[in-house]
Amino acid sequence: MLAIIIPYYKITFFGETLESLANQTEKRFKVYIGDDAGPENPANLLEKYKNKFDFVYHRFDNNLGGVSLTQQWERCITLSGNEEWIMILGDDDVLGENVVEEFYKNLPEIERESINVIRYATQVIDEKARVNSEIYFHPIKEKSTDFLFKKMKNQTRSSLSEYLFRRENFKKYEFYDFPLGWHSDDMAFLLLSNFSIIYTINFATIKIRISNISISGKLDNIYLKNKATQLFYYTISDNYISYFTKKQRIKLIEKVEVNFFRQKSVFLFFKITRWHLRKTDLFNFFKFIRRIYINS
């Protein structure tokens, strides 16, 4: 069965999220709502959906998302039962009516292929539910490392709400606690797929809301987003670079180099040197040294 987990905080768009759950053509799912001590109690709103789908609501005593968004995601997951598959749905995102139905239609093939991560086609909407993008489709089977590089080149997009993770595999890892949870979803699809295949369901769409009250849409958190981006590429380069092709490794290290040239960090110099000598080649190491000389 499928667990849909909602880390709740704001009520502004929550009604649209709940309505999309009530409209599912397949009802084999259970919703777990973890209220992060939000300022607006959703009790009256939830009452309207009491008999429309199966859900559990729990209000936490303290706000955790303001300190660590990923820890809020994780404690919401602990509310769930033993469902085999987990979706972490934003409290402002909207499921197409056939999202759950398509999951069960594709499940036999997913099980045959031993897939651990599933994603859906997506479309971006704004605060008035106006469509702001094309529908983002993906190859049915795509290596997660290749997908990351498409995203790095701005050829595609993704966010946490569009993924399903197998619970058994999820137990092996925790979310990387990057600031604002920025790139924590990217690390999740890499780790939980074992740096292997993501299976895409393109016949159902999830609408991802980007507004002036969402982390993605806000403009006053650029510093933290940049810090998270630096940590993300450093973490991959230092711990998981072997899963990538040589060409991809070079590009990942170049992402960390940007931070090195800002900070002139001796620590980063030795790290980047080590990565090149062990994971690329002498030629790319000397290109790095040359860039230092040019920028000095």
Automatic annotation (TrEMBL):
Residues 4-143 form the Glycosyltransferase 2-like domain. It comes from the Bacteria. Transmembrane segments: none annotated. InterPro entries: Glyco_trans_2-like (IPR001173), Nucleotide-diphossugar_trans (IPR029044). SUPFAM superfamilies: Nucleotide-diphospho-sugar transferases. This is Glycosyltransferase involved in cell wall biosynthesis. It comes from Flavobacterium granuli.
